[in-house]
Every structure is written in structure tokens, then in C-alpha cells.
Amino acid sequence: MADESTNQGIPAPEGEADIIDTDYEIGQDNIETQIGPIGVDIHNPVFPVSGFVIVAFVFYALALPEQAGTFFNWLRPAVTSSFDWFFFGAADLFVLFCLFLIVSPWGKVRLGGNEATPDYSYIGWFAMLFAAGMGIGLMFYGVSEPMSHFSSSFGGTAVPEGGGARTDWAPLGAAAGDQAEAVRLGMAATIFHWGLHPWAIYAIVALALALFTYNKGLPLTIRSAFYPIFGERVWGWVGHIIDILAVYATLFGLATSLGFGATQANAGLYELFGVPTGATTEVILISVITVIALISVMRGLDGGVKVLSEINMALAFLLLIFVLIAGPTAVILTGFASSLMAYIEYLPALSNPIGREDVNFSQGWTAFYWAWWISWSPFVGMFIARVSRGRTVREFVICVLLIPSLVCVLWMSVFGGTAIHQVLSDGFTGAQDAALELKLFKMLGELPLAGITSFVGIVLVVVFFVTSSDSGSLVIDTITAGGKVDAPVPQRVFWCIFEGAVAIVLLLGGGLGALQAMVISTGLPFTVVLLLMCWAIFRGLLTEAR
Q: Exposed, middle or buried, 178 (CB in 10 Å: 0-12/13-18/19+)?
């Protein structure tokens, strides 16, 4: 066991184990009882406080829908306009910290100790990373975001005195009229939202949890990462607040993604089969898919999430290859390189939080995205940590940060590039003019086998929906069970149902705007948590033998 000086961040002697010396035992504050045939093993007070507040929120949104809708409509612009600089600065810091870890001597530290070996192959590992971290978002925004940024950049309003054409919806207030540059900037702005910054956010949380769980012997819960800062106080109310914030951020981040998934699945069903669009159909979709997620939850991590993730990644890869071959292949491949270079070129300007004229873009797109990724980070980070034992810090950060970013560039180049090419070369504006949730299906409709590929798209949205709900339930249950990964299955069922219920209530109370507002509200305080987590990771790595 490490001595007290080791716990304070002083490097341990070479070769000495660095398990943190604490009297806390996993689950010691839990309430363990039997309610009829159902076993209960919940952390007190994290589970009851989280559950009560969420139930109260659901009741408020259902009982006073008009008032709730007004509140949601006010909340998002209020937060993004006041704290956009904070989201920007924090996200930039996360990227720089991750890049530092890759080149630092601590990159050699192995998660789980020098003798640990990975639990999953690279293929299984990557499949779970993408299914949990980006699935629904890539399907929803793969066509719509490149098209939106291209359209706003190419169709801005003129500015007097020869200033070109500018628009505050366009990235960087881009000049309209230059078609080629509008494509480059539109793709660069899209990659900016799906590249290094979001994956750095995920990597911070995942690395902190893996390090303090596998190398320091602490429970797999968010509070454990803060032991170097707060010491034994993490087992008291300081830790309770951190874990409760993590539950809220995870739940509302998931609810937002489930809402996006439901609206897109509904749009696809309308395109293919004429199924009516609207809140009723979306509620039915969320309910049905939640039931499917419940089945996956009861099968566990390996029998549920892992199997579905691998199926989904295979389908996503096939759809990607089909669009690459059936679409403008040469344009897509050259566009991939061009988009990557444009991303590197525009990255400093897009990352800059000071003096922005493109307020609708920087606040309405970027600040919302950073809050969304941060609200997802407890869920995705803990999930990545659970499947990443045995990797070195350098291997972990490279695989979680750089490789997924490149795959996102490829995905956006294939789907977004195809849709933009349809506008510029074929004069087809169906995808450009359609609502966000319909753009993917309009683009696929211009390619061969449109009915089959659109149906595959719907299946992908649904299964990504299921894997997100399933893995999110596992993570929230672990947090609210005090770090236990083998808590009774009915507790996971409870959280799975709650995720669906919150998504339904928010859709009814204010649509996607309400979902986005709650993501912003939970992402703001959790940004502070992530900033502290960076310092905790550094202190924790100082005590590791390299």
C-alpha cells in the first residue's frame, strides 16, 4: 500500500505498487435490501437524490407543459450566449492536455499495471467506442451538418464596402460566392465539431476513471478521479455532488441523442412507408426501442452492448462503402484530403473564443456541441474505461483521440461530400432544402438501391439508439450503485426506462429545443468537473512508475 506522501502526488519508489491507501470499501454506503423478488443495492444518497429530482422534473414538464416549454426556449440561448467563451476555452484545453499525454513520459503507463492485458480486441474495442460515443449523432448530422455549413457559407448576405458576403450563421462569417472555399469551410467546421475536441472530452473522463480504478484500486465512479484533490472527502458530500451531477449530465445527454434518433427514424419511416411524422410516432418509437434496450440490458455488457455494437459497426461500414462506391468516388476521396487540410488550416480560428462575429454559429452550433459532448462524457468516459484495461496511456489516448477523429472525417466526407456534390454537379437540392432529420434519406434517394439503403439507415439509427440507451443504463447504474459493476439487473432496467421517459417528456414539453436546453444546463457545471479532472489525472500519473 502507498504511504500518505504517495497519496499527495509525490512519486512512489520505482516498482512499488501505488494502490491508494483508503479505508473506504466499495458499496459501504449502499442500501442493500430485498423488495419482494427484486434485490436492491443502491448508493445512499446518490440514487435517491438523483431519482427524486428527475421524477420531480418529469412531473413538472408533464403537469405544466406550456410553462416548461417557455423555460426551455429561454434556457439554451441564455447559457450559450453567456458562457460560450467558457465552453470554447475548456474544450481547447482538453485537446492540448491529451496531446501532451501522448508525447509525455507517462504515455508508457499501463492501465491496470505492467502485467495487465487488454480485455477486448481492437475491432471489438473500436466498435464499442463508436456505438457508444458517436452513433446516433453521425447518422443525424452526417449529411445535414456539412450541407448546413456549406449553404450558410455560400449563401450569406452581402456586407457593404466590399467586405464580401458574411452571415453570423456561417462559420467565421465566411464570404459567400466562392463555391470551392464554401465547401472547404463547411467541411472544416463540421470536422471541428466531430474531431479532436469531442474525443478529447471523452478521453479525459475515460482516462481518469481507468487510472484511478485499475491502477489506484478505487471504485469505478466519477468521484474516484478526484481523490488526489479532495482526499477522503470524496466519500462524503463533495463526492455525492460530483456523482449526482454525472447522473444528470448522462441522463439528459442521452435523452437528447434519443430524441434526435427518434425524429430521424420517424423521418425515414415517412419517406419509405408514409408513416405519419410527429410527437405521437416519436413517442411510440422511443417506447418500442426502450423495450428492445431493456432486453439488451438484461443480457449484460458482452451479451448485449458488445454484440449490438459489432452488428451496427458492420452495417455502418457497409453503408459507408456503398455510398463511397455509388456516389462520386473520386470527388469523395480527393475531398477527404482537402477537408482534412481545411480542418487543420481553420482549426485555430474555429477554436478561438474571442471576438467572434459568427455568433449564431459559435453559440448555436459550437457551444451547444461542446456542452452536449461534455454532458455525454460521464457515460461515454465510464463506458470506455470499462473496456480499456490493459492499454498504455499513449495507446489509449491515440486510439480514443486521433483514430476516431480520422474516421469521423471520412464519414462526413463520404456522406456530406456526396450531398454537396449532388447540389453542385447535378443541381439536386432535395437534401439541401429538407429538414435536418430528412437530409440523409434525401441524399440516399438519389443513389441506386435507395429503398434498401434508406431502410439500412433506419436500422442503424434504431440500433445505435438501443446501444446508447443500454450502455448509458449500465453507466448510470454503476454510479448510483457506488461503483459496483455487478448491481442487480432491475436497477439497470429502472434507469433504462427513465432514459426513455425523460426523452419522451422533453419532446412533448418543447421538442428538440427542450432536449438541447437541458444538455446545455447540465454540460455547464460538468465542464468545471472535467477541468478539475485534468489536474487529478496529472497528479495521479506522477505517482505511477513509467
A: middle
